[in-house]
Amino acid sequence: MNGVEVRTVAAPELGERVILAIDTSLGTSVAVGAGGQIAEVSSDDPRGHAEVIGDLIARAFAEIRIPAASITHVVAGMGPGPFTGLRVGIAAAHAFALGRGLSILPLVSHDAVALEHLETGAISGVRVVQDAKRRELFVTDYTGLDWTGTPERDAEPRLLPREGYECIVNEVWPARVPAAALVRLAARRLASGATFEADKALYLRLPDVMQPKAPKPVTP
Fold it and tell me: Residue 102, Cβ neighbours under 10 Å: how many?
């Protein structure tokens, strides 16, 4: 596939778990972790999530060299993100989990971005900023890592107008959400007994396509 990036990430926190993570909130990223390693396959195409998701999942399994039947946990990035793209990854994660008889482990997508920046130790806090289109931004603030190694949110994901937005020093505008970091976050939460997020997509606004209103009653 053209325009696809593949990388391998060390993940000692995996233990015996075999975890699949999918995120389509910003580009499309799939990762499979097993045996202390994670294979991540990503596409930065802002559209075409549905067209590439199946190939990316197959490529991730091929890179890590394990069968799909080995998966013990399935993680879904819940956004924030645009309605059309975000629902593709969540649906794919649900379909895979259903086929394996597993439950979904939902995570906030921005947590994965924050993890990769906070772990460097170069900054004490970080703000993740994502273009939400329609002259708006998705924004999440973090203070640092908690005792489990999970990013602590100072403010929950929110929608801000681009006009008048003031940049801060420690802000990050990611090109994609790293699914490998979602795998690592899930492994840490499972090991510590921490809870996961609600199984609800973080659209933060109504979708462009609205349900039709009920027809008006006909009066004589």
Answer: 15
